[in-house]
Design a protein that fits this description.
The protein is of the alpha+beta class and 137 residues long. It has four helices and six strands; from the N terminus they run ααβααβββββ. The protein is globular and about 45 Å long. The protein starts with 5 loop residues before the first helix and ends in a 6-residue tail after the last strand.
Length: 137
């Protein structure tokens, strides 16, 4: 039930508005990462700007993470429970299926530590593996 999701948003410091609850509920039901356009299709009577702000808030509060899978469309997936406003811990591999065009989080496949030269500062890391998913194989 959607009302049961309110405490989960509140825990992250997110005001549980009706739209935020609907978007969160939608994201919980997804097996693959989704784009803003995917969310927009599901929320027929919603405003694109409101959806964008909702996703942006979710990202800032550590509820979702952004995935650049090389398709040109940013996709979003729910974060691990330990992500927060100050730090995302979703340093895992993503898999893009060339057949169904879906992008999946592989949380058990961690990105190895990358040694950077002195004075280089890591801001973001993304590793996308491309191939055919088990559904399409």
């Amino acid at each position: 039930m959607i009302k049961d999701l309110e405490p989960l948003l509140t825990e992250k410091g997110i005001n549980p508005t009706a739209m935020r609850l609907l978007v969160f509920d939608f994201l919980l039901k997804q097996e693959a990462a989704v784009s803003l356009a995917d969310i927009e299709k599901q929320m027929e009577h919603s405003d694109r700007i409101t959806l964008y702000r909702t996703i942006k808030t979710f990202e800032e509060k550590g509820l979702v993470h952004r995935i650049q899978d090389g398709t040109g469309a940013t996709k979003y997936a729910l974060c691990n429970a330990d992500c927060s406003t100050s730090e995302h811990h979703d340093v895992h591999v993503h898999f893009y299926c060339a057949s169904c065009k879906e992008t999946f989080c592989l949380p058990d496949s961690k990105i190895p530590e990358i040694k950077l030269p002195d004075k280089f500062k890591l801001k973001e890391m993304n590793l996308v593996v491309k191939g055919i998913c088990e559904k399409c194989a």
